[in-house]
Design goal:
Number of strands: 10
Shape: globular
Strand order of the largest sheet: 4-5-6-7
Largest sheet: 4 strands, antiparallel
Strand content: over 45%
WD repeats: 25-59
InterPro entries: WD40/YVTN_repeat-like_dom_sf, WD40_repeat_dom_sf, WD40_rpt, WDR27
Organism: Eutreptiella gymnastica
Keywords: WD repeat
Protein name: Guanine nucleotide-binding protein subunit beta-like protein
Length: 100
């Protein structure tokens, strides 16, 4: 089992067995506001940030798989996945919602 903690622009993933960080993901330039383990893509983590981007991380290789462009003038505040189809909704601080 894993525990994910976002500290400003850094994501730390802890093993609950050892209570120590096993993975550190750096790359956002603003505070990370939410992370998600997508059901349709095991061993992957998606993060959203006030830097107005989302990132897709490969947890096995511990590296960035995809980085979006800056998506809007407002930061990204929330993230949700569609449980049936491999897509996600990203919510912005200005109330805008976009699907990917």
């Amino acid at each position: 089992a894993l525990l994910v903690v976002a500290l400003d622009d850094t994501i730390l993933i802890f093993s609950l067995e050892t209570l120590s960080p096993t993975i550190q993901l750096d790359g956002h330039t603003g505070s990370v506001t939410q992370v998600l383990f997508p059901t349709h893509f095991p061993q992957t983590l998606v993060s959203v940030s006030l830097d107005r981007t989302f990132k897709v991380w490969d947890l096995v290789g511990q590296q960035l798989q995809y980085q979006s462009a800056i998506l809007a003038a407002a930061g990204i505040s929330c993230l949700a996945e569609d449980p049936v189809h491999p897509r996600m909704a990203v919510g912005f601080e200005d109330g805008t919602l976009r699907f990917f």
